[in-house]
Amino acid sequence: MNPRKEATYRMLSLIAAVIFVLPCVFLVFLTFDINPDDLWQMDSLMEFICAYKNTAILAIAGVLIQIMIALPAGYAIARIPSPKAQTFFLLTCVFFLLLPQQALMLPQYLVLMNIGWLDSLEGLLIMTAFQPWMILLFWFAAKRIDSSLFDSAICDGASNWVLFRKIYAPIVRPYVMIAAFLSIAESWNLLEQPMTFLQSKERYPLSMILMQLSTDNAELKNVLCLLFAVPLMILFCTMVKKIIDT
């Protein structure tokens, strides 16, 4: 590449990076203006801690449930011998992926009401358990595996469970880590579903507590937003390191 063009691209990338990071920098600097006594003596501190716990439960339990469903589903679709059947299942996943979430709110609300799980974290977990994008990701990962690995193992007498556990699961581990981070980030920022399905304030996740905070104390809200974002940033850095080392 021409040195002048390369320097231009680097400069444009640096400017784009600064523009992207600048709001985060302002968020950090504004937190220094708050008095620590105001933070620990605020009325909503216990609500914030309870919401943090609810958010952690939704994120951790949600990602475990979603991966337990999507990982074998992606493998099963990839191992279907019929191309037409594979296409049917993939198009079904794409259909649910493109379906607006708002269109599902009322049916989901009625289901949770009928089974008695309305206004509960369990109901929220069930309604977010099926993630079509995750199934498509694991299907893509399974299709990238050389079929000769499966054929050789089958010739040696390996069962489907052995194929899944010894070949498929270790190879797609980077995809699992990526899906886990994206799932946790999505659960961490849930807003529409909690607003629809939850009624008790003690079950609210952190996103709803932050939404309801008054804007009169901007410094306090900045501190809480920073505390909200820090776990995801730490998780992202950890995941990237592990994926690179894999």
TrEMBL record:
The keyword ATP-binding does not apply. GO terms for cellular component: plasma membrane. InterPro entries: MetI-like, MetI-like_sf. It is found in: Cell membrane. GO terms for biological process: transmembrane transport. The chain crosses the membrane at residues 12-32, 52-76, 88-111, 123-142, 174-191, 220-240. The keyword Transferase does not apply. SUPFAM superfamilies: MetI-like. Keywords: Cell membrane, Membrane, Transmembrane, Transmembrane helix, Transport. It is a multi-pass membrane protein. Gene3D superfamilies: MetI-like. Residues 52-245 form the ABC transmembrane type-1 domain. Its main location: membrane. Pfam families: BPD_transp_1. Belongs to the binding-protein-dependent transport system permease family. This is ABC transporter permease subunit. It comes from Faecalibacterium taiwanense.
